[in-house]
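User: Mind token order:
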Amino acid sequence: MKRVRIYLLGMMLLCGMLVAMVPLGISVNYDRSLVVETDSSNLVVSDYYLETSQDVSQKPRHYAVIVGISDYKAIGDLNFCDEDANDWYSFLAAMGYDEIIVLGDDTNSYLKYDGIATEHNAKLALLDLVSKAGPKDTIAFISSGHGSGDSRGSSLLCMWDITAGEDGEDGYFWDTEVAAILKLAVADQIFVFLDHCFAGGFGEELMNMPNSSNVYFASTCDIMGMGWDVGEYQNGMWTYFFLEYTLIGIFGSEPRTAMESVFDIAQAVYPYPKGAHHPQEYDGDLNNTFLLW
């Protein structure tokens, strides 16, 4: 059983971020961080779920798992992660994705709802997604919520049951655990979008996967950075600028839009122009553009 110690982020850092936002006219409600110390070693993912899967489709198919957690079981809540999930669901559903699984909390309203976003459920959903997608297909893993790390180079997504785990898990969904699942995918395209604090730490793990040439990853910040809930946008800041402002507002939801172009525009107008809180892009294939469709 992992030993966990949670402690509050220094108020000086938070105050500094809030002050930085004032000239921009943006009121930040909460950051999306949770700092922890734990042992992320000995993580194993079974390929049991892949035994009878990964059939080759005649027509490319599109699958997604979307996570949006605003109200947590045992830690402080956020405001707009459920809206992030709803907005991504609406966008992908309108595009024509064949299957979209949405996991969230137990108090908010979701346009589609497939269960609580426990670590156990998130892993099963990702394994199912990976098992269904063939070599012509596209898969997407999109998540908004609290994030954290171990201060030693590893990052994690805070699932709904963090610190009060269910079904044999502890709620800490580590970068190595996500990569251990996604590296099994034979999908032609693997899209990862994370609006969590410290999410940039997932980049190294994803780019070291044997199928990394099929991966495109956009993160709200680097391994020590913050993501933000913003009342003016009713979204996480990175979700707003990437999805709402750029992909929908500028490109008109065009399915054949290159994600690299979306990132370039979104990061250029993002309120933090550089540093740890600036969005990060990890592109496994620099010779070809990445498309969600």
In short: The mean pLDDT is 86. The domain at 5-39+60-283 is CATH 3.40.50.1460 (Rossmann fold).
